[in-house]
Amino acid sequence: MTGSRVRSERTRSGAARRHRAWLGAGFGVGFAVPCLFADVLHLPRDLYYGVYLATALGFFVLWARRTGQRLDVMVRRRRRSAVVLGVLVAAVLAAVVVGTEPATPRPEGLALAWAVLWRGVAYGAVDGLLLSAFPILAVFAAAEGSRMRRRRSGTVLIGAAALLASLVMTTVYHLGYRDFRSSMVARPVAADVVWSLPTLVTLNPVGAPIAHAGLHVSAVLHSPGTEVFLPPHR
Predict the structure, then answer these.
(1) pLDDT (tens digit, 9 = 90+) per residue, 192-232?
(2) Which of 155, 163, 185, 202 could covalently link to 180 via disulfide, CB atoms 3.0 to 4.6 Å apart?
(3) Where does the chain have alpha helices with state H?
(4) Where are the chain's structural domains?
């Protein structure tokens, strides 16, 4: 192996370690924010969502900048497919919510519009960004330039690892809420497989947030009072 190849391999290995470190930090942030601000400090729901949005967005942007991931390139990558898949998965998730969850009372008028925009679109999209887009993109970024990434079978294995990372993120995030420290945590973890697909297939960070926002909007409109959606519930 030539000196340039050795240096290149060391650079790639160092980049992979940085992405894995950021992924581990993401798990910590995903658990700590709901545990501290929802369970310990008991912030009002909409104020808590503001803290969560600022933290999750800030963390994602910081990861991208510190590891050299260009946000404009990521957003343009297969963007039409990402948007179409996101909308289709959002429609599927909305149909599941309406078909399986009981209807509960909801706000009306301006209060409903606010809830759709804040709890549905904003919170839902950022939830999809942290729980799915970030771990999936971090795993693929860690494997960038590797021999495994250049093989189709290797790419499939990396995709499986990326989905597993998203499932772990979804699990630790929901365990941050007292409400989900039971068998109930299985429900969002199972749903993660579905809402992660648009980003997993396209490696575009907008796909999963669109899908997840669709889930939250349908929850706001149909089942805002259940103990499944829109935590914290206490």
Answers:
(1) 999 999 999 999 999 999 999 999 999 999 988 888 888 88
(2) 185
(3) 3-33, 45-66, 71-76, 79-100, 109-115, 123-128, 134-143, 147-150, 152-175, 186-195, 197-202, 207-222
(4) 3-222
**pLDDT at residue 107 in the model:** 86
pLDDT in tens, 31-77: 999 999 999 999 999 999 999 999 999 999 999 999 999 999 999 99
Q: Which long-range contacts (CB under 8 A, 24 or more apart) does 106-110 make?
A: 106/220, 106/221, 106/222, 106/224, 106/225, 107/224
Q: Give the dihedral sign, CA 144/148/149/155.
A: negative
Q: How far apart are CA 25 and CA 150, in angstroms?
A: 28
Can you tell me the distance from the alpha carbon of 110 to that of 114, in angstroms, rounded to the nearest whole number?
Answer: 6
The answer to whether 162 and 135 are in contact (CB under 8 A) is yes
Among candidate residues 222, 223, 163, 225, the one with its CA nearest the CA of residue 195: 163
Q: Distance between CA 170 and CA 4 in Å, rounded?
A: 40
